[in-house]
Amino acid sequence: MATCWQGLWAYRSYLIVLLLPIVLLPLPILVPSKEAYCAYAIILMALFWCTEALPLAVTAFFPIILFPMMGIMDASEVCIEYLKDTNILFIGGLLVAITVEHWNLHKRIALRVLLLIGVQPALLLLGFMMVTAFLSMWISNTATTAMMVPIAHAVLQQLHDTPKDIEEGSDNPTFELQEPSPKKEVTKLDNGQALPVAAAPSKPRVQKTQEQIRFTQCMSLCVCYSASIGGIATLTGTTPNLVLQGQVYSIFPQNPNVVNFASWFGFAFPTMIVLLILAWLWLQILFLGFNFRKNFGFGEQEHQRKDAAIQVIQTEHRLLGPMSFAEKAVTVLFIALVLLWFTREPGFFEGWGNLAFANAKGESMVSDGTVAIFISIIMFIMPSKIPGLSQDPEKPGRLKAPPPLLNWKTVNKKMPWNIVFLLGGGFALAKGSEKSGLSAWLGDKLTPLQNVPPPATVFILCLLVAIFTECTSNVATTTLFLPILASMAQAICLHPLYVMLPCTLAASLAFMLPVATPPNAIVFSFGGLKVLDMARAGFLLNIIGVLVITLAINSWSFSIFSLHTFPSWAHSNTTTHCLLNTTTPSP
């Protein structure tokens, strides 16, 4: 019997793929309508995404097969959804992030900030959280965590060394970032890729005290949590943000570019700051206690260890050498990209997109994706060294031009193409729901929610999404929830962004389980943490996150997105009654 169960478990993916479509068949057979056909496709894809019986990107291709065969959409219409402007923005943003990583600019920024912050326990936590959150705003949360965790453990090793170790000047085995580690572990990402993670040393040099173990756990969690928190601050910081933008454009094509880089930053950046500070205080209280005087390092007992830890950071910073021409060029292009994003169509003044590239309505014809691709192409063109001729070391006697800042080999190695397809699958689902009438049907069924206060509705929905995202990819979570939330908002005459924005942020609140996000998995694989430690810290942080998001959507976001009225661009045939009462409850 045991062998039978083991065999079933071994073949579980095959069984799920074969049986689920058959089990769900009664729905389209008993209810032969386009709404039921579309619901069948969505439920099937949702279950495949939750169980990961197929790779997430492969499941995302199902609409190309199912929608034309069910008579919901033409194949040509479905395929267009797989490379929209939001996908281009995602690709362009990642090309810039890959260039920053390729030239180690992110590591230089991290070490420089840590030198400025200091190594008192509370300030060290704050320093690592600030650096990790800032880097996660621009490059992937996974890459940021993979870089910051070894640095954190190296500094902790020096802080936890005995005075005798420090006096003898013994080497630190943890801080080996310049050389490949002989032992690696592999952690599986949300997007299905395998990421090698440097394993922690198997034998600690000295027995750590309980206080040192707790500080190590606190430092590890602060890195992975701040990576997830930092990603919400910018539109390109994490994929769910781009899912929202794409869904808004797909479901409400008449919207006046309401979700762009500047408007998102105005809403999400203050939210990120508040949540980061509260996370910092919560981790201090949970792992270091209420002795803030000790946490901030008042006293001279730890002076020797602090000097040793600072020396570690200084040594690693010196190993980077002076800034190269490539790093300076990437810095200039990165700053130019951010400035162009902010000033293209900010809303509160005429941006360069409105002035130079306006359409008949005065709206910018240039998008954030256009800007990202423009800067990316420059990176493919600009040389990585000051232009000149040098000898080719592989072919003596031949002259060689310097390589560009970015080449396709590097891009092909680091670009997560599967996420591009996953985004496209989500947009195809949203369009199919609209075309089939499923969105309108759901909206009619959700009208009783009109009697629930909007802030309570937002809080409950955010809590639901935060729970769901603990065991499912955050991209799949937002892809499934946002079209339903848009229909619900239209049905109860709420501004669609009033429910879609907070639930998108809530999809990044995956703090409780190692499998919830790649940053959590990386930190957990490094050692020193138990599942209970992460669950204990993450549970309250999830609650704090939902409360902060609820505060944000009911305060400063009202003026940014005009949430006090039901917008004309969200009007549909099923929401004519909303025009009679266009105001939504003020915060």
TrEMBL record:
Q: How does it sit in the membrane?
A: Multi-pass membrane protein
Q: State the encoding gene.
A: SLC13A2
Matches recorded under Pfam families: Na_sulph_symp
Q: Does the keyword Transcription regulation apply?
A: no
> What is this protein's name?
Solute carrier family 13 member 2
Per the similarity annotation, which family is this?
Belongs to the SLC13A/DASS transporter (TC 2.A.47) family. NADC subfamily.
Note the InterPro entries from the entry. Na/sul_symport_CS, SLC13A/DASS
> From which organism does this entry originate?
Sciurus vulgaris
Molecular functions per Gene Ontology: alpha-ketoglutarate transmembrane transporter activity; fumarate transmembrane transporter activity; sodium:dicarboxylate symporter activity; succinate transmembrane transporter activity
Is Transport a UniProt keyword of this protein?
Answer: yes
Q: Where are the transmembrane segments?
A: 12-31, 38-67, 87-106, 113-139, 261-283, 325-344, 452-468, 480-499, 505-527, 539-561
Keywords, alphabetical? Ion transport, Membrane, Sodium, Sodium transport, Symport, Transmembrane, Transmembrane helix, Transport
- Record GO cellular component, one term: apical plasma membrane
